[in-house]
């Protein structure tokens, strides 16, 4: 079958598609968390003492003793087997953005050859997958094949169902034989710990006596595209790289804004419903799903949870989005920029910190005292973004996200903080000395509860800021849609811990010298804003003035590519940040630089190979086929004395030939192997390879606009975006 036939057939089949067969799920209360072995289920199945022990572990992360671990494991197994599970698996989060699993059977045979099931506390707590097949950067393990997984009891186990069976999934950490973190969960847990310690110090200096453990929270908004799988199957680029490497713009794009909050097509509606039911069973609080700005783009935003659980749930959500799409005849694209010229996808990471006694510390609160706590924690975030802007940029760096950041649809590649007019003025007044406590000291009314109501109005949000205060949390908007949220959460928690420690040191000094508490707080904040206020920006982040001013006047960095961003992980200040807080040792940090750089290079390498391949075997043949038709017709007619216009034939010939010249250039450039170091390697891909890929594409996209539609082998933008 020639390319054109399969493309046209794809359209025909899609328009005649039948909806996926679905059974009606139960009511919300029937299905909510039905596949999760949560505290409520443990309470039902455990003895009082065992339950007390596990509850303490879940709530504080404190280790579970081995006899209770055995009891919990037995109850867990019983529950899982009753739900049809025959296997269990430690699920963990290696340094790729994916998840990894190692499945084991519950079953062992006894001496009579009969099958019995076995699952002990030590099997629950420790698994031993082959560590050597996961990226570990410079961490050379003593025994290279060894990596350990261990259950993270703060994240509940659950059942993963397939059509024919079920597996008990155990959220786990993944570490090397020598105890180094090989995953994204360990640093997240450590960063939360560091933030808790530093935050408790500040609260205690502020006179709080009852201070519950502080936890970070995360609510992630996930954007994604749906494309019919018939189209995707005839686009090797979508299948292998998640984005289109070729494709001329469609006559109609997103300019009408008619997709945003528009009616959701019936097939998509069914898909979303299916997703929600599955997520509810897994105890994932999916909240909203609606159309996004681009045609074919949608969003799902679960309600916020403790960051560690939210991060696990985010991975499950991405897996569910992809797997369920297949069932409905779609492919779900989580790539940051599947279509050039059409808005890409991000993942807004909403983040706050708080505890059971003081509540959300990024909420301005209602009393003058709460206002002060808030100003300190919010100030700590401002300082963190200022001091560690390049780190924040590096944790959102990926080959995919580079296509999005800095374009006029996504946050700029400059890290600044948006506070909103009122809050910005409060800090400005503190800096100018306009907001000073009365001589007698004591509490003063900053009236910040006003901010709460004002800022929560989403109409006022600055959507051009990469890092925005939104009334009771910060929204890190520059995160990529395909990314794990762990990296950004680790960076935010850790920079906050560092700033809170800085604040605590200053406060301690002032208070021990006898300074009044309110006076001391205002003094600390004054210094903080004087030193870090440059990072606060309320204007248009997309404007060229800002790009100019941010760098020349504010001293902020514009970091356009992953190649430019990753070296931040090797900076002394960043090493010091992570080792002083105990979040990542220098070796662990360095290994992350290496792994992320390698992933960047690999991603572009696959794309570049595919550009060569598709241009040579799909696009060039279509162009020459058309050219031979045209020239045959034209010369025949010329012989008959009919003067034919040869301009189209000329365009096809020159563009096809120019494209193949660029293909040759790209191939030659790809052959280079000698690089002084990783940095030179990533820079080469960012500055040379990507440019050559664009050069090939430019000619190919021009060809798409002149070659006969029925000869074109690749589904076109308007087809992929608008046919559902
Ligand atoms: P937007 O207006 O940015 O599209 P959404 O309502 O779609 O906002 O998503 C907001 C996200 O922020 C949700 O996941 C929500 O649960 C989360 N969120 C709300 N409050 C907090 C908080 N205090 N801490 C962390 N996340 C929060
Ligand atoms: Mg948002």
Give the helices and strands, then pairings.
Elements: H1 3-15, H2 28-31, H3 39-45, H4 48-60, H5 66-82, E1 85-92, E2 100-105, E3 107-109, E4 115-117, H6 121-125, E5 126-127, E6 147-151, E7 158-161, E8 166-176, H7 185-205, E9 215-228, H8 229-233, H9 236-241, H10 266-281, E10 286-291, E11 297-302, E12 305-306, H11 307-327, E13 330-333, E14 347-355, E15 359-360, H12 368-394, H13 421-432, H14 449-455, E16 467-469, E17 474-476, H15 486-512, H16 517-532, H17 544-552, H18 562-565, H19 572-581, H20 586-639, H21 647-670, H22 678-706, H23 717-722
Parallel strand pairs: 1-8
Antiparallel strand pairs: 1-2, 3-4, 5-6, 6-8, 7-8, 9-11, 9-12, 9-13, 9-14, 10-11, 14-15, 14-17, 16-17
The structure holds adenosine-5'-diphosphate and magnesium ion.
Kindly summarize this structure in a few lines.
With 724 residues, the protein is of the alpha+beta class. The protein has helices at 3-15, 28-31, 39-45, 48-60, 66-82, 121-125, 185-205, 229-233, 236-241, 266-281, 307-327, 368-394, 421-432, 449-455, 486-512, 517-532, 544-552, 562-565, 572-581, 586-639, 647-670, 678-706, 717-722, and strands at 85-92, 100-105, 107-109, 115-117, 126-127, 147-151, 158-161, 166-176, 215-228, 286-291, 297-302, 305-306, 330-333, 347-355, 359-360, 467-469, 474-476.
